[in-house]
């Protein structure tokens, strides 16, 4: 008779939250957003997804001069950090949808989509409404709803 094995759930090794060294407790992440994400975090995020920092900042509505000021200060303000949080959520969901295929994630983020009014998902991160449209599209794709 074989001995029963203990169930050990697999942990997502490519979790964007873990790669960015962010806490997995919701209240701690919210506190970080309120206090302001570091510029280093956005730089690391850009590296993870294979985009230039200035391109990612631009997609979030952060100008080159504002990025330079934030670098000097060390962190983003609450509103900018909220947009960074939204980008992380979009990347997390896109990464899950493409089962960790980073090339597909990058390609999809830069593809003009009819469901988004011919905009690229990476261009839809400056407002909560636009970000929700991207997240809703991912949900529809996950469930096979034609978009």
From TrEMBL:
<dbReference type="Pfam" id="PF20432">
    <property type="entry name" value="Xre-like-HTH"/>
</dbReference>
<dbReference type="InterPro" id="IPR011979">
    <property type="entry name" value="Antitox_Xre"/>
</dbReference>
<protein>
    <submittedName>
        <fullName>Antitoxin</fullName>
    </submittedName>
</protein>
<feature type="domain" description="Antitoxin Xre/MbcA/ParS-like toxin-binding">
    <location>
        <begin position="96"/>
        <end position="144"/>
    </location>
</feature>
<dbReference type="Pfam" id="PF09722">
    <property type="entry name" value="Xre_MbcA_ParS_C"/>
</dbReference>
<dbReference type="InterPro" id="IPR024467">
    <property type="entry name" value="Xre/MbcA/ParS-like_toxin-bd"/>
</dbReference>
<dbReference type="InterPro" id="IPR046847">
    <property type="entry name" value="Xre-like_HTH"/>
</dbReference>
<feature type="domain" description="Antitoxin Xre-like helix-turn-helix">
    <location>
        <begin position="31"/>
        <end position="85"/>
    </location>
</feature>
């Amino acid at each position: 008779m074989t001995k029963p094995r203990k169930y050990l759930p697999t942990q997502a090794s490519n979790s964007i939250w873990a790669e960015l060294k962010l806490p997995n407790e919701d209240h701690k992440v919210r506190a970080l957003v309120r206090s302001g994400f570091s510029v280093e975090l956005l730089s690391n995020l850009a590296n993870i997804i294979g985009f230039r920092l200035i391109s990612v900042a631009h997609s979030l509505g952060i100008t080159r001069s504002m990025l330079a000021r934030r670098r000097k200060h060390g962190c983003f303000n609450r509103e900018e950090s909220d947009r960074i949080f939204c980008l992380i959520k979009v990347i997390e969901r896109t990464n899950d949808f493409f089962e960790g295929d980073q090339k597909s994630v990058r390609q999809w983020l830069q593809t003009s989509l009819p469901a988004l009014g011919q905009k690229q998902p990476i261009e839809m991160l400056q407002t909560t409404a636009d970000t929700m449209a991207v997240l809703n599209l991912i949900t529809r794709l996950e469930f096979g709803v034609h978009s």
